[in-house]
Amino acid sequence: MLTACCHVSCETKQAKKQRGEYLRQRGSPSCSSRITLIEMHNHGDFLSRKIARCWRQFVKLRKTTLSLAEEYKALEINEGLVRSIPFGQLACRIEAAKTLETTKALLDRLASRLMLSQSFSQSGPENIDHLLKHVASSKKRVSTDKETQGRGQTKKVFGKELRSHEPCNPSRYPVRAVLCAYMIFGHPDAVFSEHGEHEIALVDSATSFIQEFESLINLILIGPDSVPLSRRSSPDMSSTQLPKQQTFRSQLAAFDAAWCSYLHRFVAWKVKDARLLEEDLVRVACQLELSMMQKCKLSPEGKSPDLSHDMRAIQKQVTEDQRLLREKVQHLSGSAGIERMEHALSSARAKY
After folding, report:
1. Phi, psi (5° rounding) for residue 12?
2. Which region among 8-17, 245-254, 288-297 has the lowest average model confidence (pLDDT)?
């Protein structure tokens, strides 16, 4: 009997020992819960530190929308200033590398915020790719002083402004086209060689765009209270008619709508202005052709029985000048412009 009891006791101890080892290997429910909570706490702490580190890197490398707006505000290119300084001084300030870099960084951020805010919208932002092609081509030319003589210095400045260093997929807000709005708003007499219906409409759209742009900047810097009262309400409105408080999303949409309207007007004026400049270049090429034919006594086919050394030098110089003019017309109007130029030269030779 005693032997049996000892045997049972040994088996019980062995079973408890095995059960203890099993529980240690598997973990008891209470112990497992404590371990899970500790692991979750450690993992959450790790994620919070990682998020904080990523945010600091973002602020340092790409900056926040607020900091980008503050840097743009420091440039002091605004509705009040552009009319108080001479046109030449404004053009130099706009062409400064710091101005272009700072403004581009802000505009690119606004474009990405617009895409994000309207990513879940059925309609999305207005498609303006066909307009951006006219202001973001890397082959835009720069006008020379001779080409702009008699038409003001604006053509030279705008030739530079329309030349772009944008990538193949241009920004929704090309920096030079945006800054041109300030030149058009502040000094329309210096920008335009004439003041027709297209020019007046462009000034109006540039004014509206600048107002929406600066309202957006102020909203980012100060908050909804920075939006002018005239834009949010009027004294005649009842409390039920008052519009809702302006938000960043709604003001961003208003800014983009004003931009699309301005861009339509800007491209229409630019295309018209490019055609006028093309006509000037073709006229110069025809004058060179007629002058060469008279001095060298050439036939309409361009032949002469005997050319002196001086005549050959004149012919060579005119040929080189016309080659440069063709390149400028090619950059300005493409193959269609070249065809018009060749037709004009043929007509000039036939009349001679």
Report:
1. -65, -45
2. 8-17
Average pLDDT over residues 192-220: 93
Arithmetic mean of pLDDT over the chain: 78
The pLDDT of residue 9 is above 80: no
Residue 158 near residue 181, CB atoms below 8 Å:
no
User: Average pLDDT of 135-153?
Assistant: 44
**Which of 157, 148, 135, 147 minimizes the C-alpha distance to 86?**
157
Instruction: Assign 143 a pLDDT band (cuts: 50, 70, 90).
Output: very low
Closest-CA residue to 229 (of 209, 214, 245): 245
Token pair listed for 344 = 């004009």
Question: Tokens 């690119």 sit at which residue?
Answer: 108
Report the half-sphere exposure of 264 (CA within 13 A, side-chain side): 11
Task: Using the Cα atoms of residue 80, residue 86, residue 91 and residue 94 in order, give the sign of their dihedral.
Answer: negative
Answer for the pair 159, 141: CB distance below 8 angstroms, yes or no. yes
Q: Cα(192)–Cα(103) distance, rounded to whole angstroms?
A: 24
Where helices occur in the chain by DSSP H, the ranges are 2-26, 29-61, 65-74, 87-95, 97-117, 129-135, 145-148, 154-162, 175-186, 188-191, 197-221, 229-232, 248-296, 309-351
Q: What are 5's two structure tokens?
A: 């009891």
Torsion of CA 147, 151, 157, 158, to 10 degrees: -90
Residue 325 to residue 250: CA distance in whole angstroms = 48
185 alpha-carbon distance from chain centroid: 19
Question: pTM of this prediction?
Answer: 0.63
Query: 218: which 2 tokens?
Result: 């102020």
Mean per-residue pLDDT, 12-33? 62
| Cα dihedral 167, 168, 169, 173 sign | positive
